Amino acid sequence: VSLIAFIGAPALFMAVMLTRNVRKTLLLHLPRASTIPMTILLAVCIHPVGFVFGQGVQRVYPFSDQMLEQMQRFGGLLGEMHTAVGVGAVLLVIALVPAVCEEIAFRGFILSGLRHMGHRWVAILISSVFFGATHGILQQSLPACAIGIVIGYVAVQTRSLLPCIVLHCVYNSMSIVLAMVIPTIAADSVGLQWLFVNSDDGWVYRAPLVVVAALL
Hints:
globular
């Protein structure tokens, strides 16, 4: 509700009220047919790298005890939702809704506005900084800013918001699957154990997989 009320809806309202062409501002164009599969592949490849980067940030800047308690409480709520209505509801809340609302705001309204003021990379970087800042805490803001740069580049190259939403949604979905699904099935799956390892931080990607993903 907060994402819709304070991120998605205001951006959509300002695009309607302040711009001449809402469709152009929000990049409401269909991309080429091959773009979406390639975007999904991109999300799959960058997630291991982004995951390791996020772990590195957390080691340099550890969470406070209060923040850990809040995160555990939030994780408990997601676990209850998962048990009650399934992982689909969790993906809706954590993956799809943020992807739609945040992409309308940051890769639609903000990035489009900044592109009229200067170089595209300046617009990508500034919109990514804003995107990271909305995540509230440094341990989440830095990884979000990094992934925001990738999504911003996709927005500029494809001139469509749909690939951005898909990339964002798949990336977030993989985080949920890694946190909530993999721990319940990896122990009984030899194939998954080639990809993931159970560590002190929970199930994480194996190092060779991260290297291969980074090279791809």
